[in-house]
Amino acid sequence: MGEFDLIARYFKRPARRAALGIGDDCALLQPAPGTQLAISCDMLVQGRHFFADVNPRSLGHKALAVNLSDLAACGAKPLAFTLALALPEINEPWLTDFAGGLFELADAHNCELVGGDTTAGPLNICITVFGEVPLVNGRSQALLRSGARAGDDLYVSGTLGDARLALNALQGKLSVPAPILLAARQRLERPSPRVALGQALRGIASAAIDLSDGLMGDLGHILESSQIGATVQVDTLVHSIACYVDSTPAGIQGGIDLSLAQWRTLALAGGDDYELLFTASPSQRAAVAAAAQASQTPVRCVGQIDANPGLRLLDRQGQVLPNQYASFDHFA
Amino acid sequence: MGEFDLIARYFKRPARRAALGIGDDCALLQPAPGTQLAISCDMLVQGRHFFADVNPRSLGHKALAVNLSDLAACGAKPLAFTLALALPEINEPWLTDFAGGLFELADAHNCELVGGDTTAGPLNICITVFGEVPLVNGRSQALLRSGARAGDDLYVSGTLGDARLALNALQGKLSVPAPILLAARQRLERPSPRVALGQALRGIASAAIDLSDGLMGDLGHILESSQIGATVQVDTLVHSIACYVDSTPAGIQGGIDLSLAQWRTLALAGGDDYELLFTASPSQRAAVAAAAQASQTPVRCVGQIDANPGLRLLDRQGQVLPNQYASFDHFA
User: Fold this and answer.
1) Span A307-323, pLDDT tens digits
2) Which of B120, B121, B331 sits opposite A6 (nearest CB)?
3) C-beta separation of A69 from A196 below 8 A
4) Rounded CA gap, A291 and A88, in Å?
5) What is the arithmetic mean of pLDDT over B74-82?
6) Where residue B4 falls among pLDDT bands split at 50, 70, 90?
7) What number of H helices and E strands is found in chain B?
8) Element (H, E) at A216
9) What's the complex ipTM?
10) Which range among A27-31, A133-137, A238-242, B127-131 shows the weakest confidence by mean pLDDT?
């Protein structure tokens, strides 16, 4: 099977909203009048972002999910994406599953594959995603990293550290009860981008970012872009998927042999969370709660933005914790 | 140096026309009212698309050039691009040169880097490019593969087979005089996307494609999309950069030991040409000539579109040649 048969068999579907989809030199998109186009791009490399033996259905899901998560963080509505795929060989069952996972998530978000490239090479998946952000009176409604103001509340969606918990368990560094591992592994391999929450927060949140490299690093981007500081109540962050697995005892530990300090490390610097971190004025508390409700996404206030630069971590008793959590760096 | 320092040092520049450039979860583009956005995406893999020891400045140029060539084939005006880069290591002189070649071509086309991704991994460059195509009375002015009609003339810009000539020489399969190799290698490593010609052909050409996999395969895409056939005067295609190198004898051979059949193979199936192949009604001959003139791009008529499906190759005497030229397939 050649390149064009491969595309036709696994990836070509009729254009729906795009003016022109797969099959010409370019795809054509016609964004709605009064909108901006939000664009993001993520590349996933075998051995770096996923194991060689990863389930291809999960990989297809995750490759698009991490991109949709960036649209979510901008408050953009997904429209379309391109897929560039380097494959070491043409493995038909693998491609069927990969495309299955990819299109299942794409369809759930009405996000259309409009073009791309396929080539032979070490397994590499590069997706560029396009979303729509409304302009209101000429002003972009995009959620940026740079809008946080002193006095704003700091929020996180969902739970943090689950993906890293699963990774540590899969690497044999940690023993995790089977039902919790199952749930945590789902979070690692099939993250749910917070697309509905991001759109619901337009006009409410002052700044937002998606958590991919760990909260410490990603919050650092908001603080740097907004030129402000923050205080985080660390123990409000320590809230794992383990709490939600029925068959385990209630509470964070869930039969996992980790100290509180280790749970904190997972939450602050685990990485691969794909939750939203955002800020909003205290006057927006009811609106934030309503956005969380409307998007069926749990959200919790975990700290405050303040004018004092830098990041302060406080424990349950209000004591300052040492700030030694490194965020994920692909070249470290 | 970490990921964010790398981006800041080599790739981050202030946004010019983009509403938001590098540095947030998404870039924001605001296409002009009454336009469509043309999108294309190409991935370049070491060992497949370039040698490990390629000049990084040339590689930066070529990675963007092959994408701009797709915009050219649609008649789109370049606007912006994203860059995803997997690097085996952080090599600063290499990055300086790569970024230099990339931005030199980007600036020449007023095309802005608005976002992307960097990661560790086997060298892989994935660029997604965005261009603008006007709508006239609600009708897209994009040049598509599907618009060719029986009776149309078939045109090619520039010269074909030069890149493959250089590749064969560099691989030691062929001896080529130094001045010709220098010129041909320039065509292989630093192709000039025909962006001005593509835009000049809007409203004139009936169909267009860029030649990346060799004329035979790429013409096949036009014939398939337009559901027509073509007759090509093969020897009008045999016209190499060798003809233009001053220090060699005039004419195609230029001191290169190739038979006419081998020259034909280079022109028909060399690949990596990044010229435009397009069709236009005979009533547009003066307009095509004017577009070629305005864009300072040589263009020659090489055949005709006809209703009879399939592709017929004729030699100078009008004899039918066997059609045995395979186009480039990354998985073949």
Assistant:
1) 999 999 999 899 998 87
2) B331
3) no
4) 44
5) 96
6) confident
7) 10, 13
8) helix A215-226
9) 0.92
10) A238-242
CB contact set of A159 (below 8 Å; sequence gap of 6+): A187, A239, A240, A241, A243, A244, A275, A298
pLDDT tens across B231-258, in order?
Answer: 999 988 887 777 766 545 456 677 788 8
**Structural domains of chain A sorted by starting position, each given as residue range(s) with its CATH number in brackets:** 3-138 (3.30.1330.10), 145-319 (3.90.650.10)
Task: Work out the widest C-alpha separation in chain B, in whole angstroms.
Answer: 64
Q: pTM to 2 decimals?
A: 0.93
Q: What are phi and psi of B108, to 5 degrees?
A: -60, -25
Q: In this complex, do B144 and A20 lie within 8 Å of one another by their Cβ atoms?
A: yes
Interface touch A41/B73, C-beta < 8 Å: no
Nearest Cα to Cα of residue A127 among B102, B117, B261: B117
Tokens read off for B231: 């007759």
Q: Measured between CA atoms, how close is A91 to chain B, in angstroms?
A: 12
What does residue B93 show for φ and ψ, rounded to 5 degrees?
-60, -40
For B25, which of A31, A135, A210 is closest by C-beta distance? A210
SS3 B134: strand
Under an 8 A CB cutoff, do A43 and B1 touch?
A: no
Which residues of chain A make contact with B37, given a CB cutoff of 8 A? 28-31, 37
* Phi, psi (deg, nearest 5) at residue A214: 105, 145
Q: Which residue has the tokens 């259309």?
A: A112
φ and ψ at residue B191, rounded to 5 degrees: -60, 150
At B325 the pLDDT is 72
**Whether B120 and A41 lie within 8 Å, measured CB to CB:** no
> How many other C-beta atoms are found inside a 10 Å radius of the C-beta of residue B68?
30
Burial category of B287 from C-beta neighbours within 10 Å (exposed 0-12, middle 13-18, buried 19 and up) = middle
Element (H, E) at B153: strand B153-157
pLDDT per residue as tens digits for the range B35-61: 999 999 999 999 888 888 889 999 999
